[in-house]
Give the backbone structure.
Amino acid sequence: MKKTIITCALTGAQQGKTANPALPEQPDEIIEAGLDAWRAGASILHLHARDENGKATGDVATFRRIVDGLRDGGCDAILNLTTGGAVAGLSVDERLQILPEIKPEIASFSVGGGSMLGRFNKKTGEWQGDRFVQLFSSYAELERVARLFQDNGVRPELEIYHTGMVNNITALNELGVLDAPLLINIVMGIPGECLKANVKNLLYVVENLPEDSEWLVSAIGARNHFRMMGAVLAMGGHVRVGLEDNVYIGPGELAPSNAAIVEKAVRMIRDLGTEIANPAEAKEILRL
Protein backbone atom coordinates (compact mmCIF):
# COMPACT_ATOMS: atom_id res chain seq x y z
CA MET A 1 0.00 0.00 0.00
CA LYS A 2 1.25 3.46 -0.94
CA LYS A 3 2.29 5.51 2.06
CA THR A 4 0.53 8.74 2.96
CA ILE A 5 2.26 12.11 2.79
CA ILE A 6 1.29 14.58 5.50
CA THR A 7 1.58 18.27 4.65
CA CYS A 8 1.41 20.73 7.53
CA ALA A 9 0.27 24.26 6.62
CA LEU A 10 1.72 26.27 9.47
CA THR A 11 0.24 29.78 9.32
CA GLY A 12 -1.49 30.93 6.12
CA ALA A 13 -2.21 34.51 5.05
CA GLN A 14 -5.37 35.37 6.95
CA GLN A 15 -6.00 34.28 10.52
CA GLY A 16 -3.76 35.40 13.34
CA LYS A 17 -3.38 34.98 17.04
CA THR A 18 -6.87 36.28 17.68
CA ALA A 19 -8.11 33.03 16.14
CA ASN A 20 -5.62 30.89 18.06
CA PRO A 21 -2.68 32.20 20.14
CA ALA A 22 -0.63 29.19 19.01
CA LEU A 23 -0.70 30.25 15.34
CA PRO A 24 2.88 31.24 14.42
CA GLU A 25 3.41 34.63 12.80
CA GLN A 26 7.03 35.74 13.15
CA PRO A 27 9.89 33.85 11.44
CA ASP A 28 11.31 32.30 14.60
CA GLU A 29 7.82 31.11 15.60
CA ILE A 30 7.27 29.62 12.16
CA ILE A 31 10.65 27.88 12.28
CA GLU A 32 9.93 26.39 15.69
CA ALA A 33 6.45 25.29 14.63
CA GLY A 34 7.85 23.76 11.45
CA LEU A 35 10.52 21.79 13.27
CA ASP A 36 7.95 20.46 15.75
CA ALA A 37 5.50 19.51 12.96
CA TRP A 38 8.30 17.74 11.06
CA ARG A 39 9.29 15.79 14.16
CA ALA A 40 5.63 14.86 14.65
CA GLY A 41 5.42 13.29 11.18
CA ALA A 42 4.90 15.98 8.53
CA SER A 43 6.93 15.30 5.38
CA ILE A 44 5.98 18.58 3.69
CA LEU A 45 5.81 21.98 5.35
CA HIS A 46 3.67 24.58 3.61
CA LEU A 47 5.08 28.02 4.37
CA HIS A 48 3.68 31.53 4.35
CA ALA A 49 5.63 34.52 5.62
CA ARG A 50 4.38 37.38 7.81
CA ASP A 51 5.78 40.84 8.41
CA GLU A 52 6.50 42.36 11.82
CA ASN A 53 2.80 43.22 12.17
CA GLY A 54 1.68 39.68 11.41
CA LYS A 55 0.45 40.54 7.91
CA ALA A 56 1.11 38.29 4.92
CA THR A 57 4.17 39.21 2.87
CA GLY A 58 5.99 37.94 -0.19
CA ASP A 59 9.31 39.34 1.03
CA VAL A 60 12.07 37.05 -0.20
CA ALA A 61 14.38 37.78 2.74
CA THR A 62 11.71 36.72 5.23
CA PHE A 63 11.06 33.49 3.34
CA ARG A 64 14.78 32.81 3.09
CA ARG A 65 15.18 33.32 6.84
CA ILE A 66 12.46 30.73 7.48
CA VAL A 67 13.91 28.25 4.99
CA ASP A 68 17.44 28.63 6.37
CA GLY A 69 16.21 28.32 9.94
CA LEU A 70 14.44 25.05 9.19
CA ARG A 71 17.45 23.61 7.39
CA ASP A 72 19.82 24.76 10.13
CA GLY A 73 17.55 22.91 12.58
CA GLY A 74 18.18 19.64 10.72
CA CYS A 75 14.77 19.57 9.03
CA ASP A 76 14.74 17.42 5.88
CA ALA A 77 11.04 17.94 5.15
CA ILE A 78 10.08 19.07 1.67
CA LEU A 79 9.49 22.82 1.81
CA ASN A 80 6.44 24.10 -0.06
CA LEU A 81 6.48 27.89 -0.28
CA THR A 82 3.31 29.76 -1.10
CA THR A 83 2.79 31.91 -4.15
CA GLY A 84 -0.63 32.66 -2.70
CA GLY A 85 -1.53 35.68 -0.63
CA ALA A 86 -3.96 37.17 -3.16
CA VAL A 87 -6.57 36.98 -0.41
CA ALA A 88 -4.32 39.31 1.62
CA GLY A 89 -3.91 41.73 -1.30
CA LEU A 90 -0.46 40.70 -2.53
CA SER A 91 0.23 41.35 -6.21
CA VAL A 92 1.07 38.62 -8.72
CA ASP A 93 4.70 39.76 -9.05
CA GLU A 94 5.13 39.92 -5.28
CA ARG A 95 3.72 36.41 -4.90
CA LEU A 96 5.97 34.92 -7.58
CA GLN A 97 9.36 36.43 -6.70
CA ILE A 98 10.30 33.48 -4.46
CA LEU A 99 10.48 31.17 -7.50
CA PRO A 100 13.65 32.56 -9.14
CA GLU A 101 15.11 33.85 -5.88
CA ILE A 102 14.77 30.77 -3.65
CA LYS A 103 13.84 27.93 -6.04
CA PRO A 104 12.03 25.82 -3.42
CA GLU A 105 11.31 22.16 -4.02
CA ILE A 106 7.57 22.91 -4.24
CA ALA A 107 5.48 26.06 -4.37
CA SER A 108 1.74 26.50 -4.49
CA PHE A 109 0.05 27.62 -7.72
CA SER A 110 -3.68 28.46 -7.66
CA VAL A 111 -4.73 27.65 -11.22
CA GLY A 112 -7.73 29.90 -11.76
CA GLY A 113 -9.07 33.36 -12.30
CA GLY A 114 -10.34 33.83 -8.77
CA SER A 115 -13.26 33.13 -6.46
CA MET A 116 -16.07 34.94 -4.70
CA LEU A 117 -15.89 34.44 -0.96
CA GLY A 118 -18.51 35.07 1.69
CA ARG A 119 -21.44 33.71 3.62
CA PHE A 120 -24.90 35.09 4.37
CA ASN A 121 -25.69 35.68 8.04
CA LYS A 122 -29.39 34.96 8.52
CA LYS A 123 -29.42 36.60 11.94
CA THR A 124 -28.12 39.96 10.72
CA GLY A 125 -29.46 39.73 7.16
CA GLU A 126 -26.04 40.67 5.80
CA TRP A 127 -23.22 39.07 3.83
CA GLN A 128 -20.01 38.45 5.75
CA GLY A 129 -16.56 38.37 4.16
CA ASP A 130 -18.18 39.27 0.84
CA ARG A 131 -15.47 39.86 -1.77
CA PHE A 132 -13.86 38.62 -4.96
CA VAL A 133 -10.27 37.40 -4.76
CA GLN A 134 -8.53 37.66 -8.13
CA LEU A 135 -5.82 35.12 -8.86
CA PHE A 136 -4.83 35.27 -12.55
CA SER A 137 -6.38 37.27 -15.37
CA SER A 138 -5.99 34.96 -18.38
CA TYR A 139 -4.91 31.54 -19.64
CA ALA A 140 -1.83 33.19 -21.14
CA GLU A 141 -0.87 34.36 -17.67
CA LEU A 142 -1.43 30.88 -16.23
CA GLU A 143 0.87 29.49 -18.94
CA ARG A 144 3.50 32.14 -18.19
CA VAL A 145 3.47 31.26 -14.51
CA ALA A 146 3.60 27.51 -15.21
CA ARG A 147 6.67 28.06 -17.39
CA LEU A 148 8.25 30.16 -14.62
CA PHE A 149 7.87 27.17 -12.28
CA GLN A 150 9.32 24.83 -14.89
CA ASP A 151 12.25 27.11 -15.79
CA ASN A 152 13.25 27.37 -12.12
CA GLY A 153 12.91 23.65 -11.38
CA VAL A 154 10.07 24.17 -8.88
CA ARG A 155 7.26 21.61 -8.69
CA PRO A 156 3.90 23.40 -8.52
CA GLU A 157 1.31 22.23 -6.04
CA LEU A 158 -1.74 22.98 -8.16
CA GLU A 159 -4.48 24.46 -5.96
CA ILE A 160 -8.08 24.05 -7.10
CA TYR A 161 -11.14 25.49 -5.40
CA HIS A 162 -13.91 24.39 -7.74
CA THR A 163 -14.43 21.91 -10.59
CA GLY A 164 -13.77 24.41 -13.38
CA MET A 165 -10.16 24.67 -12.26
CA VAL A 166 -9.63 21.01 -13.20
CA ASN A 167 -10.07 22.12 -16.82
CA ASN A 168 -7.24 24.63 -16.35
CA ILE A 169 -4.91 21.90 -15.10
CA THR A 170 -5.81 19.75 -18.11
CA ALA A 171 -5.13 22.63 -20.50
CA LEU A 172 -1.71 23.38 -18.97
CA ASN A 173 -0.84 19.69 -18.89
CA GLU A 174 -1.63 19.34 -22.59
CA LEU A 175 0.71 22.27 -23.30
CA GLY A 176 3.54 20.35 -21.66
CA VAL A 177 4.27 23.01 -19.04
CA LEU A 178 3.59 20.70 -16.06
CA ASP A 179 5.90 17.86 -15.03
CA ALA A 180 4.68 14.46 -13.88
CA PRO A 181 3.44 13.47 -11.48
CA LEU A 182 1.11 16.42 -11.11
CA LEU A 183 0.66 17.42 -7.48
CA ILE A 184 -2.88 18.68 -6.93
CA ASN A 185 -4.36 20.18 -3.76
CA ILE A 186 -8.16 20.00 -3.66
CA VAL A 187 -9.32 22.82 -1.38
CA MET A 188 -12.75 22.23 0.13
CA GLY A 189 -14.97 23.95 2.65
CA ILE A 190 -14.24 27.67 2.18
CA PRO A 191 -17.52 29.64 2.33
CA GLY A 192 -18.28 30.97 -1.13
CA GLU A 193 -17.32 29.85 -4.62
CA CYS A 194 -15.51 26.73 -3.44
CA LEU A 195 -16.18 23.01 -3.28
CA LYS A 196 -18.26 21.89 -0.33
CA ALA A 197 -16.39 19.34 1.75
CA ASN A 198 -18.19 16.09 1.03
CA VAL A 199 -17.34 12.72 -0.49
CA LYS A 200 -19.50 13.17 -3.59
CA ASN A 201 -17.63 16.32 -4.63
CA LEU A 202 -14.27 14.74 -3.85
CA LEU A 203 -15.07 11.67 -5.95
CA TYR A 204 -16.13 13.82 -8.91
CA VAL A 205 -12.93 15.87 -8.85
CA VAL A 206 -10.58 12.91 -8.38
CA GLU A 207 -12.19 10.99 -11.23
CA ASN A 208 -11.52 13.94 -13.54
CA LEU A 209 -7.89 14.58 -12.65
CA PRO A 210 -5.24 13.88 -15.31
CA GLU A 211 -3.50 10.52 -15.17
CA ASP A 212 -0.28 10.36 -13.19
CA SER A 213 -1.53 12.77 -10.51
CA GLU A 214 -0.81 12.74 -6.81
CA TRP A 215 -3.42 14.64 -4.83
CA LEU A 216 -4.21 15.85 -1.36
CA VAL A 217 -7.15 17.60 0.28
CA SER A 218 -7.21 20.81 2.29
CA ALA A 219 -10.45 20.47 4.25
CA ILE A 220 -10.98 23.92 5.71
CA GLY A 221 -12.55 24.49 9.11
CA ALA A 222 -13.14 22.43 12.22
CA ARG A 223 -16.22 20.68 10.83
CA ASN A 224 -14.31 19.39 7.80
CA HIS A 225 -10.66 19.10 8.75
CA PHE A 226 -10.50 15.59 10.21
CA ARG A 227 -13.89 14.34 8.99
CA MET A 228 -12.76 14.13 5.35
CA MET A 229 -9.61 12.17 6.13
CA GLY A 230 -11.15 8.70 5.93
CA ALA A 231 -12.50 9.33 2.43
CA VAL A 232 -9.20 10.81 1.28
CA LEU A 233 -7.24 7.77 2.46
CA ALA A 234 -9.76 5.29 1.05
CA MET A 235 -9.41 6.95 -2.36
CA GLY A 236 -5.60 7.00 -2.31
CA GLY A 237 -4.99 10.65 -1.52
CA HIS A 238 -2.61 12.45 0.78
CA VAL A 239 -3.39 14.60 3.81
CA ARG A 240 -2.96 18.26 4.67
CA VAL A 241 -3.47 19.58 8.19
CA GLY A 242 -2.35 22.61 10.17
CA LEU A 243 -3.38 25.87 11.75
CA GLU A 244 -3.72 27.61 8.38
CA ASP A 245 -6.72 25.42 7.64
CA ASN A 246 -8.17 24.75 11.09
CA VAL A 247 -7.39 26.18 14.53
CA TYR A 248 -9.11 23.40 16.51
CA ILE A 249 -7.89 19.99 17.70
CA GLY A 250 -11.39 18.85 18.65
CA PRO A 251 -14.91 20.24 19.11
CA GLY A 252 -14.57 23.61 20.81
CA GLU A 253 -10.94 22.95 21.75
CA LEU A 254 -8.24 25.16 20.27
CA ALA A 255 -5.19 23.27 19.03
CA PRO A 256 -2.12 23.84 21.23
CA SER A 257 0.21 23.65 18.22
CA ASN A 258 0.63 22.56 14.62
CA ALA A 259 2.53 19.53 15.93
CA ALA A 260 -0.49 18.43 17.98
CA ILE A 261 -2.65 18.49 14.84
CA VAL A 262 -0.02 16.46 12.95
CA GLU A 263 0.14 13.95 15.81
CA LYS A 264 -3.64 13.50 15.68
CA ALA A 265 -3.47 12.98 11.91
CA VAL A 266 -0.72 10.38 12.32
CA ARG A 267 -2.84 8.45 14.83
CA MET A 268 -5.90 8.57 12.58
CA ILE A 269 -3.97 7.49 9.49
CA ARG A 270 -2.37 4.56 11.29
CA ASP A 271 -5.67 3.55 12.88
CA LEU A 272 -7.13 3.42 9.37
CA GLY A 273 -4.40 1.00 8.29
CA THR A 274 -2.03 3.27 6.36
CA GLU A 275 1.57 4.23 7.10
CA ILE A 276 3.20 7.65 7.01
CA ALA A 277 5.73 8.59 4.32
CA ASN A 278 8.92 10.12 5.64
CA PRO A 279 10.49 13.00 3.65
CA ALA A 280 12.71 10.71 1.57
CA GLU A 281 9.74 8.50 0.71
CA ALA A 282 7.63 11.55 -0.11
CA LYS A 283 10.31 12.75 -2.53
CA GLU A 284 10.26 9.35 -4.18
CA ILE A 285 6.45 9.36 -4.50
CA LEU A 286 6.52 12.86 -6.04
CA ARG A 287 9.67 12.15 -8.09
CA LEU A 288 11.35 15.30 -6.86
Residues 27-40 form the longest helix (14 residues).
